[in-house]
Amino acid sequence: MIDVDTINIVKIFNLPIENNQTTSIDCCFVLEFNKNIYCLKVNDIAPQTKKVFLDLSEKKSIKTYKSYYCDTLWAMDDQGNKYTLYDFSYSYFPHGFDYYIKIDFKGILRGGHLGNLRQQEFDRIEFETEYKKPIKLDFIYNAIHISALPIYYAKEEYSPEEFEWMDELFQPEFKRKVKIALIGKQTFEKIEIIIWRLSEFVFLCYEDMFFYDRLTVFVGENSYVLKCFNRTDNGELRKRSLRTKDKKSNDFCNKALNGKNFINFMTFREESGIIFDVFRTTAYSNSFREDYPLRFSQTMEGLANYLGITDTANNDDTFRSAIKRSIRKNDYINEYLPNSRSKDTFCQSIVDHRNCFSHVNKDGTYIQGEKNEQYAEILYTTIRILIIKRLRNEI
Fold it and tell me: What is the spatial distance between Cα 142 and Cα 157, in angstroms, rounded to a whole number?
């Protein structure tokens, strides 16, 4: 694992320059391991690095304002450690009385000079992630062995004196961390999609994605640490996202977390278009409250069409029927809407709300106040249940 916070790059082996060429340079760049975008003032960097870029500019090897890109930049630090920076780009430009170098990359690997990350094949990828619940999985998907194990405090982590007084009262405690491993040769581009989909599947079942950015990757007997910047944590949005409050439907969703349902989820994601993307981004959005029932109801309409509950796409059914038939498929809807009258009121309110915004009708009737959260929760919970019922082949 990488324990250092900064990396002192002293040599770059293949800096891109004009005419699709590269050059080797001696330099002194200090990079932070958790940062991938830099705008460096030339007068503030090491004199040897400043001279390198001034020479490159004077010789017309690089042009000002032009971006230079390479899919893999090979570098070395002052300790002789090798690094690969992925999707690397830089530009050199004047501003005021000085020059600046802007640097950007999408990932950094420590321990070697490897090829294009998207096409690089790994034999194994593993990482630890924080999560609120213990996740336990063990299954095969497309020849990839996927496992997730919760990490517990063990007695070995305590001194003999500490453990002696705990004696039989000791119980392992969940660390709120999970170790996830994917074993099987595959390109990083494909295996990272599986990790992302696994995080989405956990969101569907447990109501929150897990975040990952530091992976241990293996090629044969060699291991490397890969820091990725291609996914966003959105931690604050995730804390504020909607939740299913009734226990029965939540238990139903929680129990769906298994390998068989994940395999079916991968098929659902491939076949259903952007339905889940809209569902996920709506749950994690920082929008105004009226937007949630609007976007969730439109998501439910698309889901109802995909599941064959209705066919509003060909005008055989209406938006109202899509909502009404969908909530009937929610076996726990009575926890929210206990009778026919409340269900009818809900459906009509959703239709009016959607028509008011879709047709920009300022005098229309729309859901107001706390009802936005209440109705959004019903839609959100019903969408979760409908998707899981499809994964279980119950729709």
Answer: 37
Name the DSSP class of 274: T
Per-residue CA distances from 72 to 12, 87, 113, 152 (Å)? 11, 6, 9, 38
| DSSP track, 360-372 | T-TTS----TTHH
Output Rg (C-alpha) for the chain, integer angstroms: 26
Question: CA triplet 92, 96, 101: central angle to 5 degrees?
Answer: 20
CA distance 98 to 174: 53
Instruction: Note if the pTM is more than 0.85.
Output: yes
CA distance 202 to 258: 10
The model's pLDDT over 102-118, given as tens digits with 9 standing for 90+, comes to: 999 999 999 999 998 88
List the structure tokens of 23.
């050059």
At 13, give phi and psi (nearest 5°). -90, -20
Residue with tokens 């749950």: 283
Q: Are 386 and 307 in contact (CB under 8 A)?
A: yes
Q: Give the span between the Cα atoms of 380 and 395, in whole angstroms.
A: 18
Dig out the tokens for 110 from the structure: 């420590």
Q: Which residues of 9-22 are buried (b: 16+ CB within 10 A; e: fewer)?
A: bbbbebbbbeeeee
Give me the residues paired with residue 15 across strands. Answer: 23
Strand partners of residue 187: 121
Nearest to 151 by CA among 125, 182, 178: 178
Q: What angle do CA 280, 284, 290 make, to 5 degrees?
A: 100
User: Strands, DSSP E only, in the chain?
Assistant: 6-16, 22-32, 37-41, 67-77, 82-95, 98-104, 107-110, 121-130, 137-141, 144-152, 174-187, 214-219, 222-228
Half-sphere exposure at residue 362, Cβ-oriented, CA atoms within 13 angstroms: 0
| pLDDT for res 1 | 38
pLDDT in tens, 347-382: 999 999 988 877 666 566 789 889 999 999 999 999
**How many residues in the chain?**
395
- Look-up: residue for tokens 């278009």? 273
